[in-house]
Inverse folding.
């Protein structure tokens, strides 16, 4: 039976975290380059070790100021389904985050681009990107194997792409309603007590 998806309203308060169980991938980044984000302090690595298809690109020059932190991406012009293999430990809870910034990287200035994201064999969400916005999608799941496939699926309405993938190991006691074969997909996030406008 395919895993069920449950939409969950996530409520967060500020929490100090370490990067011990973080995997942060800057898709399309040069394979010989990694860096630390100067705003978040999070370390990012290139995606070449996690995917074996696709093409590296940058957002168009006129959109670089829109996407100061997400200027590279990987597109998948060939194949209906292309997947990243993210390392996991079976039975462990994870949060996976996909960030997509189109930025007219292909010069087509497409306004009707559409494709799907899947987690394993299961539908996660449909993406409708535009040139000037970035989009963030999150799901929480229990790993079923030593790797989790995050897949971009071509639905015939444009070339899929992704800018950033992030994987976060979660504590055992978090989200007790989460069980194997159940996946929680982010609906909306609200700041419920922080004294700053943006928290991570």
């Amino acid at each position: 039976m395919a895993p069920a998806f449950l939409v969950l309203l996530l409520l967060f308060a500020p929490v100090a975290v370490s990067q011990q169980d973080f995997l942060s991938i800057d898709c399309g980044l040069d394979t010989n380059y990694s860096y630390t984000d100067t705003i978040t302090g999070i370390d990012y690595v290139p995606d070449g070790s996690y995917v074996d298809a696709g093409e590296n690109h940058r957002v168009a020059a006129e959109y670089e100021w829109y996407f100061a932190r997400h200027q590279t991406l990987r597109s998948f012009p060939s194949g209906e389904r292309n997947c990243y293999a993210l390392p996991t430990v079976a039975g462990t809870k994870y949060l996976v985050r996909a960030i997509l910034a189109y930025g007219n990287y292909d010069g087509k200035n497409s306004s009707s681009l559409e494709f799907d994201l899947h987690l394993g064999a299961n539908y996660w969400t449909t993406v409708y990107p535009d040139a000037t916005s970035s989009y963030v999608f999150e799901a929480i799941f229990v790993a079923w194997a030593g790797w989790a496939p995050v897949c971009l699926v071509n639905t015939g309405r444009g070339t899929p792409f992704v800018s950033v993938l992030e994987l976060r190991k979660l504590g055992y006691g978090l989200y007790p309603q989460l069980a194997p074969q159940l996946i929680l997909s982010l609906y909306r996030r609200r700041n419920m007590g922080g004294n700053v406008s943006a928290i991570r």
Observations:
- Residues 7-17 have pLDDT under 50 and may be disordered.
